[in-house]
């Protein structure tokens, strides 16, 4: 694993049971689909199992021992997540089911109406596009978007044209899951602030790979998702400053999110509970807490440095494959480790299928970012994406596989 | 490639040298089908001559499976009666839904038997069916038009 | 375990690791809080662990082996749930994060507006009350409710007064989590149908304890939740006939729920995907599938018979405690195994706390059904609730504990 | 009951025989506080005499912890200066947030030290604090009124 100096990848891989798996007899798994979902270390699985085997109970309002313990675990993860992203208080951390719910919640509670404008970008994941399309239909606001440059960046020349005095919300992705691009948050925030718009950041791909400081980012809300950051499925996070969570109206109604209920009407609990209707993802919180501990122990700087090295290596190796075209930035500058590409005329489905026969798991398709695919004139791409457990061996297996695919199709 | 591979030589041959490809005149109905998940598309024309499928022509973009399947389709249906072609359609759809559990009938499906392996890959079944769904759709339209003009 | 003839409870208990736990040294757990959440058999935990250790991947759209396997597991559970509740097709089963989300979804997509009326009952869980309160505020419709009789039943004399030609939706609970009451679905459905209203059933407490047949019930939508039916947290179910799911508009927007997306607008996937935006609860589905298998193996008739016997025993033993007053039906007729009560003048908090010192876990409070508590003039109750792993020993421990509580407070 | 029990004899005594219970005249401010989770409620009156807490009277419903805590509160603050009483308030709140990690100062808290064990039970801390929060609120209102009338 020659190049990986910053992280003891071999040791880290031991924590991830699935990485020992053979996809078929004698065909070991080479997992390069971490942008879709990350694998989980045994520590996360142990925390969930321990929760269910020793502490399982519904949280809050219970005064028996299990209920107290379950509540402590659940609220403990809230505090861990708050520290992880440098929130001012655990009360600013709302648990949702995934990023998508967090973004839909925002699209429901942020205030805008007819004549107002909502701005997104052309590289959004559908989860940060469709909720705003629906919200604009519902409210009579207009959706606008910032375009992209040929090399996979936001077209910042568009900013002044698109963001105007009518803009109420600017919602954009921190790191693109399709292109790998990391967007200049400060530039967009400065422009949005100058017109008094709320700023929402989709950090689904940045929190897991580089960590974030929500206070330094200077935005009004951030969404991310547990399953991409070594945590379980079924849990996501909405962060927003307490004052915002207090000011915005509720979204889902039900148990936990209320203060006083009568048949005639109800009042709301204080944040974060106001936004957590119903039984929350308790075991999932146990798992996410362990995931945050794991990432913190390794250190997000080390994770970032490792992925940076890997990305540099992958970009170099991939571009050496004849006929391979990268969709997105071709250097590591302001870029993460999700790399989309086209392989000559071979269709991504065929690339993905033949790679799978060699155990190499990549994603093919539009990666829930169809507008960006259209922008670059491809109906679909092949995407390889890394995480802290990815080694240069994995990249080598990919590149070798791609050469075999080309040979197979005579391309 | 492994023995399990869906990439049978027959499929690759059809993919590399697709039969009856290109849009031709005359035709009675033209349809456009899209698989939005992967972007595969096909424009397909059907010409009927009474009860006979006189021609099927198409223009398409997509993976080897969807391309080969269009080519195989045309071989199977052109020159057949609509009823007979419909049997091939039924047999192919059934094969694709079989999850690898069906022994296809070569008399009915000819080269299309090579797709048996594809049915084990749910994500690829849609690719294999794209041209067939388009064909079915076009035939229904063409027949309706004919009925419309004779009644 | 003398009385439990219908089920081999001792054998079943071996499957639930947590039931071996001691709350404190030498104080074994007596879990009587299953209405809040059920415990999980090892089979469910194994299924989830196996998912994470061998098959973890994001579902749909992936063509690599793990993605195909994860999709097969996820869709496999959909089919199992469909069979379990006798849905006409797996496509009628939508996975949500819990019952609460399912009910909120319905409150957003069902069509009603100013002048229209929505009817609930006074025994609803907040999760089937607050979403309709919010929806009425949003749309200008009016919320009405069916009252309760002194013995804890729906006041059916109210039906004709409350459900009128203006009623668009009638949403009510199948089995009350506070009172234990099982409502006569057929009577309410007949009345609602006669005015052309949609009928929504909150089956959160009935699916886990008696099973349901969604087609026989004749309603338009049913909500239930995984964690109360031996499954994990983080997954719930909305069932509705396919025609309804096709006709209603989407709720949350994002990945998975779309057909074609452009910046200018989008079209929706077919049900159930239309209502499943974002990465779904995949591992949770693996667990829920195992839970459904477990319940099916035991047999819902046996579960129901066992709980019926237990409830009869508990009602008898509890009523023998002097000064104990049951809030809800006092016989087993049309009643499940959640039993709320007041113990003389001892406050429920004190009852619960002292029971906990003996290892007996019950819930105290308003159980997210505050209006019903108000109706019966109690700010809170103590509630004991059972599941298939509950034994008469557990009931005995409760009753003994209650006598000790009385003695302690000299009540 | 176990040694860990929150039910100290002192607490039970105050619960069975609450001090200063019942609403009395005169008073400068009256507040009503509710813990909606469990339904505990208290109506509490404060009478100030210059800088002194002349009387605290209350009517309440709830669990033993909330009842005893109201009784202990009145013992600690009636007759004290607002400043001194505020110190007891601060000490009690700190104790309740200590999760059982604090050794309470008996000179400041007197009988209220018996609540140290309660702080280990997050769900019950609210019960113990109900009367204290109401008292704080009432004092703030009464002081504001006095300032209003003297200025
Ligand atoms: C009758 C009833 N409805 C709805 C719910 C809400 O379920 P969940 O919290 O899983 O959304 C519950 C349980 O808490 C319930 O008992
Ligand atoms: C950039 C981005 N935003 C949003 C999402 C949605 O996350 P989830 O599916 O967990 O809601 C994803 C991942 O799928 C993503 O990559």
What does the model show?
- The complex is a heterotetramer, with two copies of chain A (411 residues) and two copies of chain B (151 residues).
- Chain A contains 15 helices and 17 strands.
- Chain A is an alpha/beta fold and 411 residues long.
- In chain A, the strands form five sheets. Chain A has a seven-stranded mixed beta sheet with strand order 4-10-9-8-7-5-6, with helices on both faces. In chain A, strands 13-14-17-16 form a four-stranded antiparallel beta sheet, covered by helices on one side.
- The longest helix of chain A is centred in the N-terminal third of the chain and has 20 residues, at 65-84.
- Chain A starts with 8 loop residues before the first helix and ends with a helix.
- With 151 residues, chain B is an alpha+beta fold.
- Chain B is 46% helix and 18% strand.
- Chain B has five helices and three strands.
- Chain B has helices at residues 9-16, 64-77, 82-96, 106-109, 122-150, and strands spanning 29-35, 40-49, 52-61.
- In chain B, strands 1-2-3 form a three-stranded antiparallel beta sheet, with helices on one face.
- The longest helix of chain B is centred in the last third of the chain and has 29 residues, at 122-150.
- Chain B starts with 8 loop residues before the first helix and ends with a helix.
- Chains in contact: A-B, A-C, A-D, B-C, C-D.
- At the A-C interface, helix 2, helix 3, helix 4, helix 5 and strand 11 of A face helix 2, helix 3, helix 4, helix 5 and strand 11 of C.
- One pyridoxal-5'-phosphate (PLP) sits between chains A (98-100, 125, 127-128, 173, 177, 202, 204-205, 225, 227, 236, 368) and C (255, 278-279).
Helix-strand blueprint:
The complex is a heterotetramer, with two copies of chain A (411 residues) and two copies of chain B (151 residues).
Chain A: H1 9-14, E1 22-24, E2 27-28, E3 30-31, H2 42-55, H3 65-84, E4 93-96, H4 99-109, E5 117-121, H5 130-139, E6 142-146, H6 159-162, E7 167-173, H7 185-194, E8 198-202, H8 207-210, H9 214-217, E9 221-225, E10 236-239, H10 242-247, E11 258-262, E12 265-268, H11 282-298, H12 300-319, E13 324-327, E14 338-343, H13 348-357, E15 360-361, E16 363-365, H14 370-375, E17 381-385, H15 392-409
Parallel strand pairs in A: 3-15, 5-6, 5-7, 7-8, 8-9
Antiparallel strand pairs in A: 1-2, 4-10, 9-10, 11-12, 13-14, 14-17, 16-17
Helix pairs in contact in A: 2-11, 3-11, 4-5, 12-15, 13-15
Chain B: H1 9-16, E1 29-35, E2 40-49, E3 52-61, H2 64-77, H3 82-96, H4 106-109, H5 122-150
Antiparallel strand pairs in B: 1-2, 2-3
Helix pairs in contact in B: 1-2, 2-5, 3-5
The structure holds pyridoxal-5'-phosphate (2 copies).
């Amino acid at each position: 694993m020659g190049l990986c100096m910053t992280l003891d990848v071999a040791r880290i891989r031991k924590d991830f049971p699935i990485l020992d798996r053979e996809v078929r007899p004698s065909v070991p798994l080479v997992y390069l689909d971490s942008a879709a979902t990350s694998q989980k270390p045994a520590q996360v699985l142990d925390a969930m199992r321990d929760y269910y085997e020793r502490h399982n109970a519904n949280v809050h309002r219970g005064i028996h021992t299990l209920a107290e313990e379950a509540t402590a675990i659940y609220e403990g993860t809230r505090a861990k997540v708050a520290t992880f992203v440098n929130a001012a208080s655990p009360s600013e951390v709302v648990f949702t089911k995934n990023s998508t719910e967090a973004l839909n919640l925002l699209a429901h509670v942020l205030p805008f109406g007819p004549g107002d404008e909502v701005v997104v970008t052309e590289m959004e994941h559908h989860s940060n596009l469709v909720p705003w399309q629906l919200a604009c239909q519902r409210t009579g606001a207009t959706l606008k978007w910032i375009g992209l440059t040929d090399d996979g960046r936001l077209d910042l020349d568009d900013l002044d044209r698109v963001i105007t005095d009518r803009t109420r919300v600017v919602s954009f992705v921190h790191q693109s899951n399709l292109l790998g691009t990391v967007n200049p948050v400060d530039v967009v925030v400065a422009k949005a602030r100058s017109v008094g718009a709320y700023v929402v950041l989709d950090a689904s791909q940045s929190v897991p790979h580089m960590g974030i400081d929500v206070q330094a980012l200077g935005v009004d809300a951030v969404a991310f998702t547990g399953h991409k950051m070594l945590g379980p499925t079924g849990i996501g996070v909405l962060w927003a400053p307490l004052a915002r969570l207090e000011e915005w109206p509720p979204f889902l109604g039900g148990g936990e999110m209320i203060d006083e209920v009568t048949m005639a009407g109800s009042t709301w609990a204080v944040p974060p509970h106001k936004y957590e209707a119903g039984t929350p993802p308790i075991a999932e919180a146990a798992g996410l807490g362990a995931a945050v501990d794991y990432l913190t122990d390794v250190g997000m700087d080390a994770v970032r440095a490792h992925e940076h090295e890997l990305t540099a290596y992958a970009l170099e190796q991939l571009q050496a494959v004849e006929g391979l075209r990268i969709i997105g930035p071709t250097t590591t500058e302001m870029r993460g480790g999700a790399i989309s590409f086209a392989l000559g005329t071979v269709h991504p489905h065929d690339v993905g299928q033949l790679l799978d026969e060699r155990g190499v798991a990549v994603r093919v398709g539009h990666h829930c970012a169809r507008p960006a695919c259209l922008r670059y004139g491809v109906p679909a791409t092949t995407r390889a994406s890394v995480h802290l457990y990815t080694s240069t061996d994995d990249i080598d297996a990919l590149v070798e596989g791609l050469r075999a695919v080309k040979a197979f199709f005579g391309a | 490639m492994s023995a399990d591979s869906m990439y049978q030589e027959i499929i690759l041959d059809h993919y590399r040298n697709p039969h009856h490809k290109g849009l031709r005149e005359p035709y009675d109905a033209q349809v456009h089908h899209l698989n939005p998940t992967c972007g595969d598309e096909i424009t397909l024309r059907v010409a009927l001559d009474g009860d006979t499928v006189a021609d099927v022509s198409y223009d398409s973009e997509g993976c080897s499976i969807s391309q080969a399947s269009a080519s195989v389709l045309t071989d199977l249906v052109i020159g057949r009666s609509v009823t007979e072609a419909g049997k091939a359609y039924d047999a192919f759809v059934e094969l694709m839904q079989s999850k690898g559990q069906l022994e296809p009938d070569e008399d009915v499906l000819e080269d299309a038997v090579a797709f048996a392996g594809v049915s084990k890959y749910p994500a690829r079944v849609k690719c294999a069916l794209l041209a067939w769904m388009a064909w079915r759709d076009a035939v229904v339209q063409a027949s309706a038009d004919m009925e419309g003009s004779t009644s």
